[in-house]
Amino acid sequence: MVKLVAQVEGIGLLGPGLDGWTSSTALLEGRAPYIPQATVLSTPDGLPPAERRRLGRVVKLALGVGLQATSKAGADPATLAAVFASSGGDGQNCHEICQALSLDERLISPTRFHNSVHNAAAGYWSIATGSRAASNAVSAYDASFAAGLLEAVTQVVVDQTRVLLVAYDAEYPPPLFVKRPIPEAFGVALVLAPVGRPSEASLGRLTLSFSDSPADRMRDAALESLRASIPAARSLPLLYQLAVQRRAVVNIDYLDGRSVAVEVDPCA
User: Fold this and answer.
1) Which site from 156, 225, 256, 261 is most exposed, i.e. has the minimal number of CB atoms within 10 Å?
2) 192 vs 118: CA distance, rounded Å
3) Is the whole model's pTM more than 0.70, yes or no?
């Protein structure tokens, strides 16, 4: 069985009641109560004024967690290859386009159009960071986090280079919410590196393989509700193990009833 191995050198996290990796570890471990609150997003400073005005919540989310992770890893974001994983991209922008098409004029603004592509976050990332490194955008519906993790770790192994994984999803407005009930914004980013001598930033080693085991759940009912309701939040069981720094195998939702098994080995 082929296994893929990489080490985690930085984590970014934003979600309901989760404002950064450092402040969220106590909540994930159960040392502090998790209280769901609206996700707080800000506009990155690296963008020119025109691009700043065009940003939707999805792009703010993706850039926010990506910059958190690279800062934690002490990595230059302009040098990292990147994988952006989202189940559906910008639902709010899709809603606005559908509304415009329902009117007699059927006029769509250029901003709405260029924000409608699935790799919009990757484009804004390259502008904000000055990156000319390769980037991929992947989508696998509710399995998008696992698909992104597989893609990113594969690149780490094949190219023997650090790769940034950014997984993100944001809420859908009515009436789309009826068919895609994602209630809030959640994003996670991992700086992944080839396995070698652990650096001071190393948080753990991940070994990936496929499994028929069911996906792991969170013990806390509110965190489990978050995991189940937002595709990017399928990462929560993995984040929990990285927070508690214990060796374990985590199963993450994948396709066709299978899971991606992630063996977590702490570097501490």
Assistant:
1) 256
2) 23
3) yes
